[in-house]
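General statements about sequence and structure are easier to judge against a single worked case. For one protein, we set the task of working out the structure tokens from the amino acid sequence alone. This step matters because it turns folding into a mapping between discrete strings. The amino acid sequence and the backbone structure tokens for this protein are reproduced below.
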Amino acid sequence: MTQISRRLEQIVRRELSKNIIPVKTPDGILVGDVLITNEDNLKFLYRNTQLIYAEIHLNSVAIKMANILALRHSHLSVDVLYKADQEYGRWFVDSQMLRSQHQKAIHTQDYDRADVLWARYCESRDRTVTAKNQAERLL
């Protein structure tokens, strides 16, 4: 039993050493030397008051990107995460816009237009879910 607990402790230490623990500050969340700020549900990454990445949609992606940058790993993996997050953001905004237009068409009793908008919304919603899953798989 003691060997199992030691091995588990080693695994936990190794996993924790891969990531820097985020610290909440008055300005935002600090991960190493990278600051994550929040504005209208969008995250921004700063290093030494200089903007690095803007308009990140998913919290988990922002924290992972900040960890990679703070540990000074390859920017290539950060760029891949950022592109996946931006793809999710585009589909999310598109689906919300289509849903709003659908509601407006229902309100004005333009049912043909509402049907078309609902079909487009459903496709956009499905692509949003797919894009989110792809972004989270990269974590």
